[in-house]
Design brief:
The structure is a homodimer. By secondary structure, chain A is an alpha+beta fold. The first copy, chain A, contains eleven helices and eleven strands. A four-stranded antiparallel β-sheet of chain A has the order 1-8-3-6. In chain A, strands 2-7-4-5 form a four-stranded antiparallel β-sheet. The first copy, chain A, binds a DNA duplex through α9.
Chain lengths: 239, 239
DNA sequence: CGAGCCATTTGATAAATATCAAGTCGTGCC
DNA sequence: GGCACGACTTGATATTTATCAAATGGCTCG
């Protein structure tokens, strides 16, 4: 693992507060690996041996059942994923594949578990991280159960705008088919939902979204802090 | 709070491993309260001041958005709920109401947070609990996104059967309309889904479910450890 | 530059699910 | 016991969403 990786990882809320010594031990046991695009690096059901940290590239977390598949999250640098499985020493509930070429740091789950047993600050960070992740999934589930696909798209567009400083225009951060799957709909349905939002202040140009009428869009989206989670500190995590 | 409550709470995985002294401190600050049926005891959006523990009765966790409402979980004795909100000192993401008369022990969130800062064993239990809750929601989300409503009902029936020692017959543990909402469908749709499963080995008599053909039902349900979570130790929690 | 590939869009249609409206049934309360 | 209420069911219908099939269009790679 590169020298410049360590300070990046150290900045993560999960690792920020632990002792320097423990951080050193943990990262000494870790190693970095590069993966080409479209590689399935984690298969659901396998034992969780490593906490993964994306340093570069984009990772899709997805799950399959029978012939179906759904995107659970899209992870970007610098964030960790599949923490819960590592902690429980249980099988991964999700698979992971690279969307583009990635560099991933892998921290042995065994060392992780050993560390928060002895480092109270790390234990605290882990608690906080897990609670955030939990709340994040709950919010997403609420969105799935309470909103129609059109409303979910509207809410997503507005949220992205907020993340870009309330920009009226931004580029979608991932392929539409991934986004559609994440939002719980087919690509066709997503496409039509966006189109139907033209009458409510959304224009599209390829990957670019332009909000032409915030008020109208907000009326459709019905943003809610308890679903969309903006403005609540430390709750940006997704896995 | 009653004397006989303490040992019951102490048995929970969350409190099992902490020091006796800390447990005493925590429960001294706590108090029990009785609620009549159909009382909304927690409203989503309010600050999370107390960890709740159901001692008697049944509690529904639900969320609302616009005029819609959905059941997120149903909690029975003896379990805690809304741990994550307490930890993050953040607003509740879900509301809670009593299904029937309840006795609830309420532990101040402030004391909780103070305790796992000083008690490493309690911190460990909290980590484990949160990781389980997280995985539980992820599994439920997978079920919602990957299965049709009919398949969800089939899977639910089989899971309940397993929980009853693979009994061919059991009583539904909650009203059908609650179950329907929890499974992400309308009561009408639930009713029809059950009926349509008659041809796949499910019979109904009021609240009683009778499985007449396990093989056929399993073929529909496609039970999966990574969704239905059976057999994975310590992963029964839901909130 | 051109060919092919793949994501996206669009259209037509089907399936799943929700909604509305009665009607049935059981249960609790007077 | 009988009444009233609410849950559940059933039917008819509307809406939402998915599926299948066929363009379109951008992009990469030779």
């Amino acid at each position: 693992m590169r020298d410049e990786d360590k300070p990046e990882i150290r900045k993560l809320p999960l690792f920020r507060d632990m002792t320097g010594e423990n951080f050193e031990t943990l990262t000494r046991a870790a190693y970095a690996q590069s993966f080409p695009a479209q590689l399935e690096m984690i298969r659901q059901g396998e034992p969780a041996d490593f906490l993964h940290v994306v340093m570069e590239g984009t990772v899709e977390l997805f799950s399959g059942w029978r012939e179906r598949e759904t995107t659970m999250a899209v992870v970007r640098p610098v964030s960790s994923f599949i923490l819960a499985a590592c902690i429980k020493d249980a099988p991964y509930l999700m698979s992971a594949r690279t969307i583009e070429k990635c560099r991933i740091v892998m921290i042995p789950a065994k060392d992780l578990r050993a560390t928060f047993r002895t480092d109270p600050d790390f234990a605290m960070s882990t608690i906080s991280e897990l609670a955030s992740c939990y709340r994040s999934v709950v919010r997403h589930t609420k969105s799935l159960k309470l909103r129609s696909s059109r409303e979910r798209v509207a809410a997503y567009v507005l949220c992205q705008s907020r993340l870009t400083g309330n920009a009226a225009s931004f580029i979608l951060p991932m392929e539409k088919r991934l986004l559609a799957s994440f939002l719980g709909m087919t690509p066709e349905n997503f496409s039509r939902a966006v189109k139907s939002l033209q009458s409510d202040g959304v224009a599209v140009d390829g990957m670019r979204i332009i909000i032409t009428n915030f008020e109208a869009l907000e009326a459709v989206a019905g943003l809610d802090a308890l679903i969309d989670g903006f403005g609540i500190s430390g709750e940006l995590n997704s896995a």
